[in-house]
Amino acid sequence: MTERESDGTTPGLNADEPEALEPRVAQTVARMKDALSEGNGSEAVRFFRDAVSNKLIVEDEELLNWLRRSMGKVATEKFLTVFSRLPCFYCNRGVLRCEECDGRGHDEDGTLCSECLSLGIDRCGFCGGSGWFTINHVPRALQLQVILRRVLAAGKDADAVLADAVPVVSATQYDDAKKEAARALLQVNRLLGVLENMAEAARREETERAESAATAQKVVAACLALAQKLEERACELLTVLADASSREAASIEGEDKSRLAQRRAKFFSHLASSKSFAGTLLRHPLLIPESSVEPDSAEESKVSNAEEERPEATAPEQS
Ligand SMILES: [Zn+2]
Ligand SMILES: [Zn+2]
Question: Phi and psi of 123, rounded to 5°?
Fold first, then answer.
């Protein structure tokens, strides 16, 4: 018999009354509390998961209330915060080396890699570039609380990112601005990944749980509003990248490098003005619907690269 079956239905039990626990369950709860108070959140999660697989703790809709009763509100808050910060086990803060171009940013023939914007770094497909543990693996009853915490954290990070000045490209110093803009763009994109995942999870919450619907709606609205600001910043940073690439094209030694820089300038500038991000790591269709300006800029850029690549094309098309 599980703990919930033995105690969960006790009449008159309210959230402020500590739950009377079976010894093995009490031991697990005590271990979780200790781990949390020592700041060892992943250990607390491990104890929790073990207890769930041993059927000592029931992972059902009542879980949040049960945790509050048996572990106390303070420890439960900590536990929720730990869950909200569990990293994706697949990537490093949402990014990986781009597999499309093997991290080079372009093909053998110099065609730019649209997926990674020729940066050589792609977003993680597992966590959507958010860097966080997927919400689907968070116990259902804790999801809304985890969503709220992640959106709050993303909001704080976004405030910091948006407070930073957009890098300035000067005639002689384009390289630092380019690096800085690329770094900031990836940061913005990670936050968009968080917001996209959380908006999606909140929409599901809204349809599946009537009691959470009002909160979930507010979360979705907050995600969309913040995404708009971040998208604007992404476009500003793309413009910086375009300017820096133009400068680079004009000053760099070597025809091939100069031509690559020219293509980048054109590609970034097109992305910034069209806001059409399909086929790139900047796409977030569940958060920001695809711009109706142009059907697919990424494909277009690929084509223009190819055309530019073979101006006096004598080689037959290979495909
Ligand atoms: Zn790539
Ligand atoms: Zn990931």
Answer: -80, 155
